[in-house]
Structure formats: structure tokens, C-alpha cells
Write a structure and sequence with these properties.
The complex is a heterodimer of chains A (845) and B (365).
Chain A (H helix, E strand, L loop, with lengths): L1 E3 H7 L8 H10 L3 E6 L7 E13 L5 E8 L6 H4 L3 E5 L9 E5 L4 E2 L3 E2 L3 E3 L2 E3 L2 E2 L17 H4 L4 H6 L6 H4 L6 E5 L10 H12 L21 E3 L11 E10 L9 H10 L6 H13 L4 E4 L7 E5 L5 E3 L5 E3 L5 E5 L2 E5 L3 E2 L12 E8 L1 H10 L5 H8 L6 H16 L2 E2 L4 E3 L8 E4 L2 H6 L5 H11 L2 E3 L6 E5 L10 H12 L18 H15 L3 E2 L5 E2 L3 H4 L24 E2 L4 H13 L5 E8 L21 H10 L5 E8 L1 E3 L8 E2 L2 H14 L5 E4 L5 E10 L5 E8 L1 H6 L7 E6 H7 L15 E10 L4 H12 L3 E10 L8 E10 L8 H19 L2 E2 L1
Helix pairs in contact in A: 2-7, 8-9, 9-12, 10-11, 14-15, 16-20, 16-22, 23-24
Chain B lengths: L17 H17 L3 H12 L4 H9 L4 H40 L18 H15 L3 E2 L5 E3 H4 L28 E3 L4 H10 L4 E10 L11 E11 L4 H16 L5 E8 L2 E10 L18 E10 L1 H6 L8 E8 H9 L4 H5 L3 H5 L6
Parallel strand pairs in B: 1-4
Antiparallel strand pairs in B: 2-3, 4-5, 5-9, 6-7, 7-8, 8-9
Helix pairs in contact in B: 1-2, 1-4, 2-4, 3-4, 5-10
The chains are: A alpha+beta (845), B alpha+beta (365).
The structure holds zinc ion.
């Protein structure tokens, strides 16, 4: 809302020295956020000048400048140099003898453009002759302002012009406009009446209510209007009050008065015609949207009704709109005239030839207007106000004021009859505990202050002796005041939020949860291993699952689709972090980071919309347990994952040796380490799983066998399709499963101080037998006394035989209670070998 | 070698001739001094101290002397041998020290040479700022609550007093899960549904921080992202007032931005709170003293987010008895905190996953 300061001064007492900035600060205090201050940025000397001579001087660049001498009276150079002001001007729409506006050295134009004497085109130019745009008066930049034309309709002004006169006052350039943001609960602040009331509250000055005008009693019924509503929304009819007044024999071609045009311009509206300007002016003043019909073009009685589906209306913006059953219509003689509270059609619009005007001031249901406005994507000055609630008592006042202005400036007479139909919903008083503000704010508000503030707001407060409970009837312009906390806010903001004390509440939490600590420790570990944490958007395309090679029935295809994705090509929610992390990896590679390892922790979606969707429950009370359970169940599972991916070199070559590329074992190692840092011995087993390379993929499992994820090298086809470097490796684990698996505290094993015995075994197995399986068999066979097992050699060759490999392990064994004998160590070793032979077909070499 | 002889004059025995002994001693000392390597010293030692050396021979001859002569001869030879042994030991140490010093010098390395070893990675600064914020509230006794990102419409809107006709529920602000009319699911536009879940599952006193990812249908540019992070706070207990809200915000801002930074509440409107306020915090760079301040734009205050006392309708829908309990809530942006605190000027640097961005920060910011 743009608030012209001069207009505000008409409604409240504002001290002469108070500037827009001060007004903005006062309004901020009561909750009207400052959006900006317009105008008033110009600083003089800005004076009226008379052109004495102007000599065209063509320039080499093809331009013609004018070397001017301008009489600027006592302000000019003549005081110091004894000559009129010498100014270079690029415009050519003026002649010697014309009255113009000059800014002199030392002046500042809007945009903080400071004027000084400067050498240009071979002359010393002592200022500038100004255009409308340079002064912030309009968009006209075709030429400078020639006052003779600018004030063509104001002979009084033209007669008074003198060289050197202050042009700031003459052009009204000192006027400021304060722009504030109006929150949705304060619809009444979309009017000067509302803003002035808030300003008065903020500064404790008197407020003159512009709605305080007498509406004469109608001598009879006015223009026939019927209100029909077969489909009220939530029990509220679309139109609960319709006031109409008639003004006859108006000359609609006459202009609206300059002061009105000026105010309208300042609030950001374009002056159009007398009838439109009057309705806009009254709307800006009182907050009541009005409509002016050409009475003679109205096809018949007005009926307000809901639309029938499929009905059409071409609105004033020349768009044909198909109406929906919720739309509320103004019709005349059966013809659709307007979407109520939103926008009219062209058919009965007031034009220059209009003689008789019907002024409509109606009260429409906020929800009805909001829905129509959104459905038709039409946000108008009227809809903006109706959506937020208009004072239902203001309609007759607004119509009266508009009729008076039309009659005054358009000639004409106001009918003594009037239409006023409908029944606005009665307000009801509610109880309010005057101690509530003190309790909710934590600051002492005496009873007198609470009641006084409510009365200043316009509330009717009924007190009963000895009781803290008062009865409050909110003013008609404050439909937002319906219960206690809303009144508390009023009391608090009028005293000022800056008075609220600062008290830290006591709380006794239990710290981070295990799951939260797991996230941190895993994230930190991966960073310590050289990977970089990144964030990627969770949106993916329809084709990605095919690219990744998922089977048709892969559970990872089960996700939700966005109805309004940011990009049509990415409407799905990811089901794995790798879905989007790989793209982040690719972006890094394309930006020159060819050796890169990244990771991400985040949620993935694993499930789609349940049948019937998630329930929308009542809000009047807590959902019953069954509904609550249904609600949670309808939200698709979203486990938290951790994923990592790397491409290029793990270590570059240099003086220290040769390079090593990231390979599948890096991914598997990171997966193992995620387990290790959480105290979980993850199991690794060969697996075939998209999108990994079928021969270079490991399934990662908990000790109980539950798979928590996969790691390895990605499938070459996937790499090709995603434009990732060859041999890119990746892994992804379900962090929720790991969290659960690491929840139970680990029990420490008593450390044995008896000597460690070591023994080696060399085994030959088929090439196809994974080392992990041989290790597992050895561990099983060796039993509990095995302390550690490590592979120290692997070789293939003739001695081993085709299709075979030889593995050599160190076994370290120790007993908790004694020194193991050589025989015992040998026995353990033999059992280990036997298990490997039985389970893996291993033979001892 | 001569056998013991009772009538034996040492002077007559050549090996024990004092001149000979002295010559042997001098020769031995010279040889030790002139040895320049441990090997030369070893050779010299064999020559001058070994079994066949003159002094060793002289020593053996002493045994053959008559007892009357033994003492003098013993003193002569013993003195010479002692001096030689000490000289050799000393020279041995000198040469060893020289050798050790030489080896150390030879072993010196250029430690400015890159190791080639892979270095540390990095956390994302958003995570780090988020954890820092979490820790501030943990230290005040709050707990951290999580929830899903694809969330029910009821928990995201209805329960927060954002009715079906509220503008926030329009397609231009919110990502809806298809079919939009019936899925009842959205991408959460704030972490407030976590507040509702927490109120439904816990009993007061409740003091929780809900950090997390949220979604709005904004295109990515220097200051907007369709995916961003928020942290919302909620405290519900008997007697909770707006003063507690102000106190919590003051404490938080001072712990994150330092010093005696003040906060300011301005009246505002949110459907889920009543009374409602915007939170500004004093500019921690200029404290409002610099009209050309880059951080606050000269205003002296920086907008942080919104807050207020939890609307009774919200408490009621979430199963809290609004007659008994009151609560406050606030919501702030993590990106904004990161951008302000670390002079990040382009949102895209935060969201695009360029490793260079994360690598600028340590692991504790
Ligand atoms: Zn600053």
C-alpha cells in the first residue's frame, strides 16, 4: 500500500517537520513493514526559468545541442557573474520565451544524481533543463518540461510564473509517498482510513474518520437488486450486502480534479475518467471497492448469483473467461456484467457519453472472491481488498461519498432513493480476560491500558465490576479480531514489541539422539577419508530408472511424482541418493575437477501415493488415533541414506611414485568404514545389482545378513549414458538400518595378556571363489581363539594350475587364560583349513 | 716369548726397553690420530693394540721378569697401554660422531615436497552451520526433531491454521504430489510439520529445534533456491510467554553471531502464530554505525525470519490443551545464516555441489 504523506496529513495530525522516514518508522512499530519511500529525493535549487535565447549547435556526432541563456532570477549566475544562467540542453521541444524548469549546480535529482557546473560540448553548462522523467514526474523523456504546456489547464499558475520561483513546490516534488507491506490479517490497511488509524495508534494522535459522513435516509427503494445464492461456501453467502446509488445527468467526460488525480498517481493508480477516478479514490480512502455502471446500458435488474458451469464472460482485460460454479456473478437483466469483487465486463462500463451512473458498493465473501481471483489468475485492487475482508458497514458511506463527488465534479444530481439489500453477518461479542496479555507476553499490562487500547482500536468493551473478564465487540473493519490472542497482539503492539523482556526458558533435553550422532560421525568420517560432502536437488526424470538399468519390477522405481515440478523433465522424487549425486559428480568433472570424490547424506523416497491419498483431517481437535495412524501411513517411507561416488585418480603420479585410480575397492572400503566407525562389522559379498558393473559390485550386509546397500564400480553403460568418466565408482547405504544396528552398546572383550601365536596357511581355490568366503570359512574353522586373520599373498600361475589361485594368510591366535601350545596352535590351524576345504573347496599347498 | 726368569733385568729385555715402549706408545697414538675413517682406525688398532703389537709383546714379557722388576715394568707398559686404549676409544667416538653426522646430513629430506598422499575431504558448510545451530539449542536444553520431506498436506498446512483457501497452498508456492487434488501430499514448505508431529507424539514440556530441507517453487537464482534449509524452534509448556521467545532468540543470535547482538521483534502476521512477529537482529558487522555496510545495507538490522506465540488452533489440532499450555515458535533460514556469516553472495554456490565450495571451509565453522 502506497501512502501519500499529504493525504495522510488530512486524516491525522502530523507535525510539519515529520518526514516520510519518520512516518515509516512509526508504522513499522505497529506492524506495517516499510517497503520504500518514494519522492522527496530531489534537492534544489530547482527553479522556474525563462529561456532568453537558444542557439542550435550541430555536433560532429550528429546530435544537435542547444546553447541556452535562461533567466532564473535571483538564483542565477547573474549574482556572481552578472549574466543569465548558461545551460547546454539536448532537447529541442522549446523556444526562446518558453517557461522551463532548471536544476542548478548543487541540486540533486532522484537517483542521487548530483548536478554541478561542467564543461560539455565546448561550453560551461551551469545546470540542466529538466524533463518529466528526470524529475520523477512521469515517463516522458521526449523533451523538457515546457510549463506553458504542462499547466495548460491552469491559467492561474501560468500567470504567477516568475523566473527563479521554487519549482519543487510548484510541481509538488517535495511530496513523499511511504510504501508499506500490509499483512493478510489487516485488510483495513488497504485504505487511507486504516493506515491513518494505525498511525494514530502508533503516535497517540487524533484520528479523523473519513467515513464519518452523514448518509441521508433513502426516500424509497433504489435500483432493483436481488441476491441469490444456491451454493454458499461453508455456509457463507457470496454477497451479504449490496448498496447502490444513482447519480443522474452527469457529464462523464469532465476530468476529475487535479488533487484527486495527484493522490491516485501517488498511490500508484492511473487517472482515467471522472467516474473511474471517483470510485478509485473512494476505494483508496475507505477501502470499499466500488463499481460504476452506465445506468442506461444496464439491460435490466441486477441479480447477484453463482455461475452456471460453462458460462462465459469477457472481462475488461479482453480475456474471455469460462466461469466455474463457485464464481459469484453480477448480472443485469440476465446478462453477465462482472465476476463479483474481481473484475467487470465491458458491456455496461461508464464512458464519456454516460449521463446516468449507478454506483455499486457491495460486500462479498472473502473466500468466494479469493477462489475466483485465483481461478482466473486475476488479482485486482478490488479482489485484494475483498479477500482480506472489507468493513460491511462502510458500503453506504462509500456509495454516498462517491455519489457526492460525481455530482460535484460531473454536475448532476443524486437520487434520494437508495438500494441496500442483504444481511451482513452480525458481529458477536466474545469474552476476554484482561490478564491474558500479561500472561502471554510476559510483561505487565494494567487493566486500564488493556481496555483503553481495545477502545482506541474501535472495540466496544463491556466491563463487569470485579471481574477480569470483559466482553469485547470488535469493530466492523476488524474481522480478524475474533479471539483472545488476537487482542493480546493488539495490546502488545500498541505498547510496542520493543518493551518485551528477554527471558531464557528452562529446558532439560537429552542431547542429540543416536541417529543424529550417527549422521555426524559418518559424515565426518567420509570427509576425513578425502570425500567432499555435497547437496543435490532430489528431483529426477522419468527415464532415469531405465538408464540405471533397473528391472521393471525394481522397488526403486516406486516413488511419487510432482504435479508441478520445477522442470517438466524432472518430475519424480529420487529413490536413491546416487540418482542425483552422480549428476553432481559429473558437474564437478565438467568444471575441471577430474579427480573427485563426493558424498551426500539425505532422505530418499521409497513408496508412492497410497490409495485415496493422505487424509485431510479436521483441525478442531486432535486426530483420533486411527486417523492419526492413517495419516502417518499415507506418507511414503523416506529412509535416510548415505552415498558416495568418485572418479579419476585416488592418488596422482609424481616424485613419490605412480598414480592410482579410484577403483571398486575404494567404494567397498568406504562402505566398510561407515560400518566400522559405527562399530559394525559389515559383510561384503559379490552381487549383481544395477547400476553397478555386474562383476564389480559388492552387497554390503549387517552381521545378521540384512543388506544395507551396495558398492563397487558403475556399469559402463550407465557411465556412458550419464556422461560420467570410465571406471567411476559409487556406493549407497541405508543409514537408518545402520543406525538401528549400532544402537545396542558394544560389550568389551577382556584383553588377554598371554602371548600371541602366529601361523600361516596357503590354500589353493578355484578362481571363482571370493577371498571373502575363504576368510569367512577360516574364521569359522579357527573358532574363538582366532585374534586376527590377514591375507598376505595371492598368486596365480602354472604351479597353482589353470583356473585356480593361491591365497596365503597369517593367522594370529591367543587364549584368554593360558599360553597356547604348539599342538593347540596347529590344531586351530588344521580346523581352519578343514573349514576352508569343506566350504570353499580349498586345498592346502 | 720368554719364560719367567728370576734373574731378569728388564733393561736387558729388548721389549721392555723404556725407549722401545715409548716409541710404541707414540707410534700407536700417531696412528690413532691419523686414522680418518673407522676402518683405518680399526686397522691401526690391530697394529698397535692387537696381540702382535709391540705393547702387547712388552706386556707379555713382564710375566718373565723377577718379581722385583715387575712393578716398574708393569707401570711403564700399563701406562702406555692405558694411554693408547683411551686415545683409540676417543678417536673411535670422534669418528663415529662424524659418521653419524654425515649420515644425518645425507638423510635430510625436502619436506616442502608434496607427498602425493590424498588429503582430507570436506563437510558441506550448510551441514556445519546447521550442526552449530543445533548445538547452540542443545546447550540450552532443547532437543532436535526430524521428519519426512514428502509430507502430508494436513500436517503441512491444515494443522498450522493454513486452511484450504490460504494462498500458500497454491501451486505457485508449493510442490504438490500428483494427483494434486487427491494425493494429500506435498513437499514440505517449512519444517513446521515436524512441530506438529512432535506435539502429537510428545507431552509438554516440549523444547525442540526442527532443522531440515524445505521446498518452494522458486527458480534457482543468486538469492533463491527451490530447495533450501530451515530451522524452526518450538517450546510448549505452562506459562510460556513472548518474553521466553525473545530470550531464546537473543541467546541464539548472540551465540551464533557473537557479542551483545540484540534482536528486535516487529509485529507481523502468520496464520500459525498469534501474536506474530518478524525477527531482526542487529548487524554484527557495523552495529548500525555504517550507512554503507555491505552486510546490513546500512539499515543496522538484518531480517532473520518469523516467530510468534503458537496459535491456539494449532495447539488444539496437535492435541495440546490450549487452556493449560502456551508455546512459541520461530523459523529461520540456514542458507541465510551461512550467507550472512560467511559472506557467500550466490545461492548457486551452496546448491550446485561444486567441491571447491565445500573445500573452502574447515570442518568447524
Ligand atoms: Zn551493518
Amino acid at each position: 500500500m502506497r501512502v501519500p504523506v499529504e493525504w495522510l496529513r488530512e486524516l491525522v495530525e502530523i507535525a510539519p517537520g515529520v518526514r516520510g522516514r519518520d512516518i515509516a518508522a512509526d508504522l513499522v512499530r505497529v506492524g506495517l513493514e516499510e517497503e520504500g519511500i518514494h519522492g522527496g529525493q530531489l534537492r534544489g535549487p530547482l527553479v522556474v526559468g525563462r529561456v532568453l535565447s537558444q542557439v542550435p549547435e550541430p555536433q560532429k556526432n550528429g546530435k544537435t545541442i542547444h546553447w541556452c541563456h535562461v533567466d532564473v532570477g535571483a538564483n542565477g549566475q547573474q549574482l556572481t557573474h552578472g549574466i543569465p544562467q548558461e545551460i547546454v540542453c539536448g532537447a529541442n521541444n522549446f523556444d526562446a520565451g518558453d517557461w522551463v524548469v532548471c536544476i542548478l549546480p548543487g541540486g540533486v535529482l532522484p537517483g542521487n544524481f548530483e548536478i554541478s557546473a561542467r564543461k560539455t560540448y565546448g561550453h560551461m553548462s551551469n545546470g540542466m533543463i529538466c524533463s518529466e522523467r528526470e524529475l520523477g514526474l512521469g515517463d516522458d523523456h521526449d523533451g523538457i518540461i515546457v510549463l506553458t504546456r504542462y499547466f495548460a489547464d491552469r491559467p492561474d499558475i501560468l500567470e504567477s510564473l516568475e523566473p527563479g520561483m521554487d519549482a519543487i513546490a510548484l510541481l509538488g516534488l517535495g511530496r513523499e509517498v511511504v510504501e508499506v507491506n500490509v499483512t493478510p490479517d489487516r485488510g483495513y490497511c488497504f485504505s487511507m482510513r486504516g493506515i491513518a488509524r494505525e498511525y494514530a495508534l502508533a503516535t497517540n494522535v487524533d484520528f479523523r474518520d473519513p467515513a464519518d459522513i452523514e448518509v441521508p435516509v433513502a426516500t424509497g427503494p433504489g435500483f432493483p437488486v436481488r441476491l441469490v445464492d444456491e451454493r454458499p461456501i461453508d455456509g457463507r453467502v457470496g454477497c451479504d450486502r449490496y448498496v447502490a446509488r444513482t447519480v443522474r445527468d452527469v457529464d462523464a467526460s469532465r476530468p476529475s480534479p487535479p488533487w484527486m488525480q495527484r493522490y491516485l498517481t501517488e498511490v500508484g493508480m492511473r487517472p482515467i475518467s471522472l467516474a473511474v477516478d471517483v470510485t478509485n479514490y473512494v476505494m483508496m480512502l475507505l477501502g470499499q471497492p466500488l463499481h460504476a455502471f452506465d445506468l442506461d446500458l444496464l439491460p435490466g435488474d441486477i441479480e447477484v448469483r453463482r455461475a452456471a458451469p460453462g458460462e462465459k464472460l469477457t472481462t475488461l482485460d479482453d480475456v474471455e473467461r469460462t466461469l466455474a460454479a463457485d464464481d459469484l456473478l453480477i448480472t443485469g437483466g440476465g446478462e453477465i456484467l462482472a465476476i463479483a469483487g474481481v473484475m467487470g465486463g465491458a458491456s455496461s462500463e461508464v464512458g464519456p457519453a454516460t449521463r446516468n451512473v449507478l454506483i455499486e458498493a457491495a460486500h462479498f465473501d472473502p473466500i468466494t472472491v479469493a477462489r475466483s481471483s485465483r481461478r482466473h489468475r486475476l488479482a485486482t485492487e478490488a479482489s485484494k481488498r475483498f479477500e482480506r475482508g472489507v468493513d460491511p458497514q462502510i458500503a453506504p458511506v462509500a456509495a454516498e461519498l462517491a455519489a457526492r463527488l460525481l455530482a460535484e465534479f460531473g454536475g448532476g444530481t443524486i437520487d434520494s432513493t437508495a438500494t441496500d439489500v442483504g444481511e451482513p453477518q452480525a458481529r458477536s461479542a466474545f469474552d476476554f480476560d484482561v490478564t491474558h496479555p500479561t500472561r502471554l507476553i510476559g510483561l505487565e499490562y494494567p487493566r486500564e491500558e488493556v481496555v483503553g487500547t481495545l477502545r482506541r482500536l474501535g472495540c466496544e468493551v463491556t466491563e463487569s465490576a470485579g471481574s477480569p473478564i470483559v466482553s469485547v465487540l470488535a469493530p466492523t473493519w476488524r474481522p480478524d479480531l475474533t479471539d483472545g490472542p488476537e487482542l493480546v497482539e493488539e495490546v502488545a503492539r500498541v505498547r510496542g514489541y520493543d518493551q518485551i523482556p528477554s527471558v531464557v526458558p528452562r529446558a532439560e533435553g537429552r542431547g542429540l539422539t543416536h541417529a543424529q550422532r550417527v549422521r555426524r560421525v559418518v559424515a565426518t568420517m567420509l570427509a576425513n577419508q578425502g570425500l567432499v560432502e555435497v547437496e543435490s536437488y532430489p528431483f529426477i526424470g522419468n527415464g532415469l530408472f531405465d538408464v540405471l538399468g533397473y528391472a521393471a519390477d525394481d522397488a526403486r522405481r516406486d516413488t511419487v511424482t510432482l504435479a508441478n515440478p520445477l522442470q517438466d523433465e524432472a518430475p519424480l522424487m529420487r529413490t536413491s541418493l546416487l540418482d542425483t549425486l552422480l549428476e553432481t559428480l559429473r558437474r564437478n568433472v565438467s568444471r575441471g575437477m577430474r579427480d573427485v570424490a563426493v558424498y551426500e547424506l539425505g532422505l530418499v523416497t521409497r513408496g508412492s501415493v497410497p490409495k485415496g491419498g493422505a487424509p485431510i483431517l479436521p483441525v478442531s481437535s486432535r486426530p483420533d488415533p486411527e486417523s492419526e495412524a492413517r495419516l502417518y501411513a499415507a506418507v511414503p517411507p523416506q529412509p535416510r541414506h548415505v552415498a558416495f561416488a568418485a572418479a579419476g585418480l585416488a592418488q596422482g603420479s609424481g616424485p613419490w611414485g605412480s598414480s592410482r585410480g579410484f577403483d571398486a575397492s575404494d567404494a567397498v572400503t568406504w562402505a566398510r568404514e561407515v560400518g566400522e566407525i559405527l562399530g559394525i562389522q559389515l559383510q561384503v559379498a559379490a552381487a549383481t545389482m544395477a547400476p553397478w558393473h555386474p562383476g564389480r559390485c559388492a552387497a554390503i550386509s549387517l552381521p545378521d545378513g540384512r543388506v544395507v546397500g551396495w558398492a563397487g564400480e558403475l556399469h559402463p553403460k550407465v557411465l556412458g549414458a550419464l556422461k560420467l568418466p570410465a571406471r567411476t565408482v559409487a556406493g549407497e547405504l541405508d543409514l537408518d538400518l545402520l543406525t538401528e544396528a549400532s544402537l545396542a552398546p558394544i560389550s568389551a572383550v577382556k584383553l588377554s595378556t598371554f602371548p600371541l601365536a602366529t601361523t600361516d596357511v596357503a590354500l589353493t581355490v578355484d578362481e571363482t571363489v571370493p577371498v571373502g568366503e575363504v576368510e569367512a570359512a577360516l574364521r569359522r574353522g579357527a573358532g574363538p581363539l582366532l585374534e586376527s586373520l590377514s591375507l598376505f599373498d595371492l598368486f596365480r600361475g602354472e604351479q597353482v594350475g589353470a583356473g585356480k589361485k593361491s591365497l596365503a594368510f597369517h593367522l594370529a591366535v591367543r587364549a584368554p587364560d593360558r599360553t597356547l601350545t604348539t599342538d593347540e596352535v596347529s590344531a586351530i590351524r588344521d580346523q581352519a583349513v578343514a573349514a576352508a576345504a569343506r566350504d570353499c573347496g580349498a586345498t592346502q599347498r | 716369548m720368554s719364560g719367567p726368569n728370576t734373574n731378569y733385568d728388564p733393561v736387558e729385555v729388548a721389549a721392555l726397553d723404556p725407549v722401545t715402549v715409548e716409541a710404541a706408545r707414540v707410534a700407536a697414538l700417531e696412528a690413532a690420530a691419523s686414522a680418518t675413517t673407522l676402518d683405518e682406525l680399526k686397522a691401526a688398532r690391530t697394529t698397535h693394540q692387537g696381540d702382535r703389537s709391540a705393547l702387547a709383546q712388552a706386556n707379555r714379557e713382564i710375566g718373565a721378569l723377577p718379581p722385583s722388576a715387575k712393578a716398574a715394568a708393569g707401570k711403564l707398559v700399563g701406562g702406555a697401554r692405558g694411554a693408547v686404549a683411551a686415545a683409540y676409544a676417543r678417536r673411535q667416538r670422534e669418528l663415529e660422531d662424524e659418521r653419524d653426522a654425515r649420515i644425518l646430513a645425507e638423510e635430510s629430506l625436502d619436506l616442502t615436497m608434496p607427498s602425493g598422499r590424498p588429503g582430507l575431504g570436506a563437510r558441506h558448510p550448510l551441514s556445519l552451520v546447521s550442526e552449530r545451530i543445533e548445538d547452540i539449542f542443545i546447550a540450552m536444553g532443547w532437543e532436535i526433531a526430524d521428519g519426512p520431506e514428502v509430507e502430508s498436506e494436513w500436517l503441512t498446512f491444515d494443522a498450522l491454521n493454513l486452511g484450504p483457501d490460504h494462498p500458500a497452498r497454491q501451486m505457485q508456492d508449493t510442490f504438490f504430489v500428483a494427483p494434486a487434488e487427491s494425493s494429500g501430499l506435498v513437499l514440505r514448505t517449512h519444517t513446521s510439520p515436524v512441530q506438529i508431529r512432535s506435539m502429537l507424539s510428545r507431552t509438554p514440556p516440549i523444547a525442540i529445534l526442527c532443522p531440515g530441507k524445505v521446498f518452494r517453487t522458486d527458480d534457482l537464482d543468486a538469492t533463491h533456491s527451490p530447495v533450501f534449509h530451515q530451522f524452526e524452534g518450538l517450546v510448549v509448556d505452562r506459562g510460556i510467554s513472548m518474553a521466553h521467545l525473545k530470550g531464546s532468540l537473543d541467546a541464539f543470535v548472540q551465540r551464533l553471531f557473537g557479542g551483545h547482538i540484540a534482536t528486535r521483534l516487529r509485529p507481523s502476521y502468520f496464520p500459525f502464530t498469534e501474536p506474530s512477529a518478524e525477527i531482526d537482529c542487529q548487524c554484527w558487522v557495523c552495529y548500525g554505525q555504517d550507512i554503507s555496510c555491505r552486510v546490513c545495507g546500512g539499515f543496522g538490522w538484518i531480517e532473520l525470519g518469523g516467530c510468534g506465540m503458537v496459535n491456539r488452533r494449532v495447539l488444539t489440532a496437535a492435541g495440546i490443551d490450549a487452556e493449560v499450555y502456551t508455546g512459541f515458535a520461530f523459523g529461520l533460514g540456514i542458507e541465510r545464516a551461512l550467507m550472512l556469516r560467511h559472506n557467500v553472495n550466490d545461492m548457486r554456490d551452496i546448491t550446485e555441489g561444486d567441491v571447491r565450495f565445500s573445500r573452502q571451509f574447515g570442518m568447524e565453522i
